[in-house]
Structure formats: structure tokens, C-alpha cells
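Limitations
The C-alpha cells in this dataset are predictions for the assembled complex, not deposited experimental models. Users should treat interface geometry with appropriate caution, especially where small molecules or nucleic acid strands are included. An illustrative entry is reproduced here so readers can see what is and is not provided.
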Amino acid sequence: MTSLHDEHLVAGVDHAAFPTFDPAGTVRFYRDTLGFPVVHSICAAGWGAKDHPDFIHFFFDIGNEDRIAFFYYFGLEGPDLTQGAGDVYARFPEGTADWFVRSRHLALHVASSEELMEYRRRLDASDWPVEMQIQHETIESIYTHDPNGYMIEFTRALRPVEPQEDLDANLTIDALVEVVQQPHPTMDKLLVRKAELIVQRAEKWQEAQQAAVSDEVRR
Amino acid sequence: MTSLHDEHLVAGVDHAAFPTFDPAGTVRFYRDTLGFPVVHSICAAGWGAKDHPDFIHFFFDIGNEDRIAFFYYFGLEGPDLTQGAGDVYARFPEGTADWFVRSRHLALHVASSEELMEYRRRLDASDWPVEMQIQHETIESIYTHDPNGYMIEFTRALRPVEPQEDLDANLTIDALVEVVQQPHPTMDKLLVRKAELIVQRAEKWQEAQQAAVSDEVRR
Amino acid sequence: MSAVAVSRHRIGLVVPSSNVTVETEIPQILGRHTAARFSYHSTRMRMSKVSPEQLAAMNAQRERCIIEIADAGPDVILYGCLVALMSAGLAEHRRVEGLVAEQLATGGSAAKVRSSAGALLEALRALGAQRIALVMPYARPLAERVVAYLEHEGFDVHDWRALEVEDNHAVARIPAADVMGAARSLDREGVDALVISCCVQMPSLDLVETAEQELGLPVLSAATAGAYSILRACGLPVDIPYAGSLLRIDALHHAELRSGSQ
Amino acid sequence: MSAVAVSRHRIGLVVPSSNVTVETEIPQILGRHTAARFSYHSTRMRMSKVSPEQLAAMNAQRERCIIEIADAGPDVILYGCLVALMSAGLAEHRRVEGLVAEQLATGGSAAKVRSSAGALLEALRALGAQRIALVMPYARPLAERVVAYLEHEGFDVHDWRALEVEDNHAVARIPAADVMGAARSLDREGVDALVISCCVQMPSLDLVETAEQELGLPVLSAATAGAYSILRACGLPVDIPYAGSLLRIDALHHAELRSGSQ
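Predicted assembly:
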């Protein structure tokens, strides 16, 4: 048991890594269109595995000390993109629901609506225009697919997450964990279970809420 | 043309999102094993798409204002995991090279070797022990697969990226973009082209190097 | 106006289970709009007693209710319990409206969301009111939270009355005379607007126009403010007769412009 | 020691194309090791003239050379051009060793990487040397960069000679007498160690032991330092005769321990 035992020690994403079969398009998208600087590259062979092609691993700076990274393998054939859906890594049969295909994505953070619109401008002037913009009062995101078919989202700052919200999310997750361990979980069962948990914990929750309110008043 | 035109405006990852068919395992892995707080959840139905199941979108704090997020769709069947390779999102035929399957991954950043070892301890005490540790002098990473089959890396801080390295990476990428637009690109052609670019740009490069040296001396 | 095609709008109402007034007064008000037709679709959060514990539990039913009501594809959702939000913490309506908007956006619904609490602030600001007076049905501690909430939003609550009715069913039966009596007893010196019912359950619609004539200042209620906010969210003109000057605001501005005044 | 099975080690050498000395002296030294056998695998970076431009271009060939040499599956790679690193900027050996290590790790190679520049520092520290003297083949401006590099690493370069031979082929033919002459002419007052060849191309192996006896202080060269670093990287004892006290360091420590001194 070390002194680090109970601490939250991670410092966010170091890199989100993806294979590419189109490094030229990938560079045109991330560097030339979006303006993400190339910050690192590693040329290597696969010494650890048999039949591993030579490859290059290259990194773009996406701000806040995070990076997006690609692997390009010399001579490796990409998948057949004429059939089905998905990206160059994950292929799905024709007819797979869009919402499922899009569920795996990377969302990048911008501070303001103006900045979001600047990325919209850059994308719309490129071969990868914005495909979807969700503008819903306090929420604003734009989406496109990069040359590899990976869905990239830009999202502007929502209000900061508050302690009350954490409490609520934790109740939801506790209810979720219980409900999915029973047969046939549904949203309804989740919300019923959550309501039960709230009643069980109402007092404590109320105290926390009141503390949050007094905090706010004091500010 | 706005004033934001040439600026690097992104502030890193907002969230890296994945579908899950095992929210209980996912919570046990990220919250209970790794200690990533649950910070947000959204219960929703799919009002925009037809036949969209009810779903919950939940978020874990991974530090540095980044989040990892999951979608759980009530009633949606997961893929058959008894055949082939990959994760619950991307499936590959039997025999697909490991290195390709692993190329898509999310690497989280820790500041020190001690912190890395603390996550190793947490994982090794869980159902998801570290599968691979790369410890190579200045580089240190641990890898495992989460309950959904997604590869998660923890990597400790390398030396900061220096201007010289950026220059070099940019030369590599310029050479890469040229070489992959010709037939049969190889690592050899890339490195030959890079050497040519260096000769072309040697003078400028030399100046930048010297500036970097004098910077360092002045510090 | 009669040449314009009548537009149709679906209004989602999320109300406390014991509330009967919202679903009565909002349709009464909007039914008088000349350029639009509305349909109303409700869902309920369990609550019978207006206590902090019940209010907290009720707020937690929000996610379920939004899922239910969004299934009906409304254009605007009114989250219809003012005190549930105002008692939960300062600026709570912004937090909740943000969470609901996010929930809707995540599920791909284009519905807008408004709350009674936010609508009251929006209406007071539309009237240019700064110093205000209030009539509320609540017990004193809850009433004090409502006053603090409004003051935190920048209003000067010059005077207020709390009728101290805790049972929510009973709130729906408070006699009009009691409400008018409370309104008359308020110190209205320098007051810009009177909120004759700072509660979506206390009936007051019929009193609004009467009180405005009698007391000589703009009078609004949680219901007229809610209707105002719904009309704005739908992008419709606000010009409804016999419900106080708030709901004639576009007609009044039009008249002012014609007479050359500002 | 003779009871221990002889271990086998593959040594990768990355050398300037015109270098001939590294591949001669390192095998000569390590060939005398009693507990291990070594094989040597080289690859080359183009360079003929030791000028800043050529050195920069050569450094850029690093990636290719590492890919080539790692294909041979070496246990340790010695990146064998001292001045190429030291002239590129302070602490460059750490930067380059880091980048090579990363390149190897990314490709799944377990090879360790050492550089001549880093090895010289490692060896001087192993000897506990603080005040040092140097003989170098380089032209004065390059020699001055080497001195600055070592001082930045915390050493006090008390005196130094630059033989000012710029052609790298000619460096390999510098007569032993010239090197010894330069070494004898150095001010050695209070000096802890003498680097008789601060260059992997200037031959000096035969001079190391002789100079150490004649001048009465530890003498090392880029080659003996490289061999030292390779042995440490392989986890092998450092006990090789006739190449200066650096390469007998484990035997000397053992002797000291036996005699009870510290």
C-alpha cells in the first residue's frame, strides 16, 4: 500500500492513436486544414513481431499537452471501403446503424463558440466539410470524418461540472451497475432504481446540496 | 478571414468516446480499479434516428480536464467475441496481426515512474492485469485491455518535445507525404527523400539548431 | 395577421404530479393567440408535499420525464415547477436547463427547454422590472429561498407575502380573494412589477388583468411568464389579450413605435 | 571466473562512413574479456569532412542507421560519433539516446543504446574524475564546442590540445607520436584523468596503458570509454588488461575491498 494508493494520478490523454492507410490525406487534414502542428515522428521496423512491416508513427499537437498519433505501415493494404460502413480500422456490414458506428469518436475541446466556428470555417473550406452541427442552446459541437473515416468532434466548453452533478452521475452509475446485472435491463428499470437510491441517500444528498448552495452564496 | 485564422485553438481532448456492452465491467475497471471518478452521465433516448434504443452516456475523469466516455445502449446485442480478434466495436478475422489490432489505442499520461507503477499495482490486483510493459531506458509504458477489449496504455512523461525535434518531425512528414504519393512507398525511399530535404534546407536548419543551442546556453 | 397561415406547435409540460394549474392556465393563455395553434403533452414528477426532501427527490425524476416527453417530439418543453428549482440552489434553473438541453441534444432531439423559474426571470427582464413584489403560497423558509434566488439574479424584492400552504393539492384551491388580498397588502412604493403568483400551482390567471388595472402596475404570474417564454422560444409574436401587459408586449411596442415614442 | 559459462553478446555499431577506428579498437578491447564473447555489426552514416554542415546531415541519418542495425538484433548499440553529438548542442547525447531508445521501443526492439559522447561522460564519472585534460584531432572551433560540452556536464577541462586535422580519413592516420607529444605537453597539475583521444576515429588504444604508466594518472580514450559502457550495458564485469585503469575498475575495486581500504 503506497502513499499514492487513493490518488487520482493520471494527467489526461498522452496520445490517441490510430492506424492510417492515407498519411498524405491525414497530414492534409490535421496539419494543413486544422493547423495542428506535427510535433514528433518515429521511424521504426517491427523488431518484436514477425512479418511486421516498417512503419512510421507520427504525432500532431492537439493542445493541452495532448496529441493525436497515427501509424502508417509501409506496404500494408487497407480494407475494402466500397462495402459496408465504418473507418479504415473498423468495418461494419451494410445497414449498421449510423449512431452505433459514430459512438466511437474523439472529441476535441475548444473554449468558445468563436473558436468552434473558426474550425468550422477551416473544415468547410476543405475536402472534409462539417457533416453535422449540434447546436442546442448551451451545447455546440461540430462533427466530421477525417480521411481515415474516424469521427472527429469539436465541442465548445460547457459549464464546468459541479459537485451536485457528480453526485447525480454517481447515483446513476450505481443504479446502472445494479440493473445491468439483472436480466433485461431497461432505461425504465435504471431510473426506478436510481429513484430508490435517492430516497435511501436523500438525507446525505440534501446535506451536500445545501453545502453546495452555501458555497455558492459565500462566493 | 478572422483574427483566429492562424491560431492553434484546440485545448486537447474533451472526451474519447466508446460503445460498451458491459457497463458493469467498465465501471469496475475505470472507477473501482483505476480510481477514475464518474463525473457525468446523460440518460437519453434516440429521438433523432429511427429504432434508436434508449441509452446512457457516462463519463470518467482522466485528469488534465480530459474525459473518457462510454455509450451503453439498452437491449443492443454485442458482437460475437468467440471468433476473431479485436474489441466490442471493431472485429477482425482470426489471424489478423496483433500489432495492427493494437495500433488503435488510447494512451494516458502519468508524470513519473512511481505513478506508473501505482497504476500497474492497481491493474495487477484486478481482473485486468498489465499485459505488456515496455521499459526501455527513457520510455516506460504499461498496457492492458479494458473489459470492452479497448487497449489502454499508461505512459510516463518523456523529456519535453524540443524545437529541434519538431523540425525533424516536419522534415520526416514532408518526405512521407511526397513518398506515399509515388508508387510503392518504402521506409528506404522516405529516408532518402528526407536526407535530400535536409540538404536542401541544411542552412536554415543549422541556424535554427544554433539558435536552440544558444537558448540552452543562456538558460 | 389573419393573412398569415396559422402555425402549429407542440408544447411539452413537465409538472409535479399534484399540479393541475399549469395544464389549465397555459392552454387558456395560448389558446387566445391569433397566429398559432398549440397542443400540450405532459408528464409528471411525483410530489405531493412541498418540502426540501420531496423537492430533491422530484428533481431527480427529471431525466425520466425528459425522456418521456421528448418521445412526443415537442418544439418546446416547459419544466414546470418553479420552487423545485429555486429551492435547490442559486442559479439552479441555468444548471437544470443546461443539463436538459444536453440530454436532448445527446439523443438528437431538437426540442428547446425552458423552466418556470427561468421564464419568470426572462419575463421580469422583458418588462424592464428591477424592483418587484411577490405573492407566494409557500411556507416561510421556502419563500425566503425564492426571495434570495431572485435577489441573486439582480432583482430588488421590495415586499412579499407567503400564504404558508404546504400541501400542494391545497395550493390549487387557494381562493382568489386571498391572493388579491395579499397583493393589495403589499408595499408597492416604487415597485416596477408585481408577481401575483410566484408559483405554477397557485391559480391566478383571472387575477392578472384585474390586478394590473386596479393596482396600476404590470402584473404577471408564473403562468403568464411561462406562456411568454414559450412564445419567444417558438419565435411567435407576444400579443395575447386579458393576461397583463407582459403578454401584450409586442403590440405595446408596436403602438409605441407608431406614436413615435421610444 | 573460468567456471562461469562464456556469454555471447551482439554489439551494434553506428559509425561515420569514413570511420575505421571504432570497428578496430572496440573488438580489440572486448576480445580480451574472459567471461564473454562478442560479435560486431555495423552500419554507416555518410560523412567525410568534420564540419558543422556535414555533422548535421549525418545526425539526420540516424533513424535509417538505427533501423538497419536493429534488424540484426543487437544487445547494445553504440552510436559511435562523439563530435557529431557534442557539436550539435549541449546535452545532445541525452536527447539522441532518448530518441533512439524510443525508436527501438516503438518497434519492439530490446536493444539498449549508448553513444560515444555519453560513454565518455559515464567513464569519467566512474573514475571519479572532476578535473580533466584532453587531446582532440579537431579544428579549433569544434574542439572548443567539445570543451564547452564537457564543462556543461560538470567537468573542469583544465587543459586541452586540438591537432586540427579536419579530413576524417587523415584523422585515422595521425601518428601515435603526435598524440603522445600532445599528451605530454598538457598541464596536468591536479588533473584527475586524461582523455588521450577524445575522438572515436583518432587511434590511441596502444597509447592508453603506456601513457597511464608514463604520466602517472588514469588515461582513457573514446574507445576505452565506449567499451566500458558496452560492458556495463551488458551487465558484464569490467576487467580487461592493458587498456588503462578504467577497464580494470571492477578488479581494482575488488582488490581495494580485499585490502580493507575504501
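Some entries come with short summary sentences. For this one: The longest strand of chain D covers residues 7-16.
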